[in-house]
Amino acid sequence: MMQLLEIIGEAVKNLPVEFKNKHKDVPWKDIAGMRDRVAHFYFGIDYELVWQTVTKDIPELKNKIVKLLKK
């Protein structure tokens, strides 16, 4: 799971700034920050935060991305 969070975060970092600015309802900075925390083990891994991200935040992100793709 943590590697998938890294991949998602890295993908977000590579999105054009214009795209991220156009879709400010998506927490781009938080997603990239989670990638950094997981990839570099800053202050250890907060597994509760990872679980919350996987069970709550990722499904919400998926819904937002699906809506963006339908536009």
Describe this structure in a few short sentences.
By secondary structure, this protein is mainly alpha-helical. It has helices at 2-13, 17-22, 28-40, 47-70.
Fold blueprint:
Layout: H1 2-13, H2 17-22, H3 28-40, H4 47-70
Helix pairs in contact: 1-3
Structure description:
- The chain is mainly α.
- Helix content is 77%, strand content 0%.
- The protein is built from four helices and no strands.
- Helix 1 packs across helix 3.
Number of domains: 1
**Helix vs. strand class:** mainly alpha
> Based on DSSP secondary structure assignment, what is the total number of beta strands?
0
> Oligomerization state of this entry?
single chain
List keywords for this structure.
mainly alpha, 0% strand, globular, 77% helix, 71 residues
